[in-house]
Target: Chromosome partitioning protein
Amino acid sequence: MPAVIATLNLKGGVGKTTVTAGLGEFLAGEFGRRVLLVDLDSQMNLTAMMIGPDRWVDLNTRGATLAALFADAVDGTRTFRLAEALQRDVSTVDGVAGVDLVPSSLDLIELTEELSALRVRRDDTLAAVGILGDALAPVLGDYDVVLLDCPPSMGPLTLNGLAMAHGYLVPTIPDVLSTYGIGQVQTQIARFAAELGRPIVELGVVVSKYRANATVHRETVLRLRRDPTIAHVLPGYLGESNAIAAAARFDHWPSLRARYGARGQFDQFRELARTVLVEAEHKLPEATPRP
Ligand SMILES: Nc1ncnc2c1ncn2[C@@H]1O[C@H](COP(=O)(O)OP(=O)(O)O)[C@@H](O)[C@H]1O
Ligand SMILES: [Mg+2]
Model:
């Protein structure tokens, strides 16, 4: 069973997608793990980052994205073919093998409302949250780690991710407004986990876009580290850098250092990936990724 980990914060622009992509590529490239990336955000940034717009248009036209899976659930058809949607070995970084992707689609925007309506109509809070888990179940054994990039909401797509997740990471910029949402995420996930009848473990907060020369950033990191309600502030703070911003470009990259930055960023991401493996090993008993 792979470790299934959701990346979630109710605020947008805090680095969720960048953390998910970087973790995926470092876990595969530096630690030899087989990684499945699942893009649950209708903004489809992770999809664009990994396979680019042309290949996405082709897949979307053929109904080979998560939109087809969720559309099936809404209208009762069965058009989604996981084998077609699952994109193998998508990393464009030389030497990084074993990163697969289930792509998202802009068409998820409309479907989100219909999925919410489905939950209400069936008068069953757990209706329509097992769609993703059921669809991916046949291939989960092929992976060591599954990373779910969630939209910045607790809508039905995020709940589908959480319903199959063992644990979650909360990326945040260490400033006042970005950290407001952490408590809300924890509370809402705990409530949903209670509904599911099993824990969804908080693996920790990932500090992103860190600026060591910003007083508010330094103070916020200290505050988070002292906060008894936060399980863990993971080491390997990702600094704000042009290199990490440019890593979002769909391009051919000669190495992880070329994509994510060689001036400390490589070490930050590597440390983050290593820590996630250690945390998963300790805190997710039902998942067994080797550390
Ligand atoms: N450490 C970083 N340094 C500089 N830019 C970053 C960093 N992390 C993310 N970004 C950029 O900030 C924007 C938001 O990041 P993203 O990962 O898309 O956040 P989210 O998924 O939470 O909306 C993107 O343009 C991304 O390229
Ligand atoms: Mg995102």
User: Anything to note?
Assistant: The chain has a mean pLDDT of 94. The two ends are 14 Å apart (CA to CA). The beta strands are 3-7, 35-39, 99-102, 145-149, 167-172, 201-207.
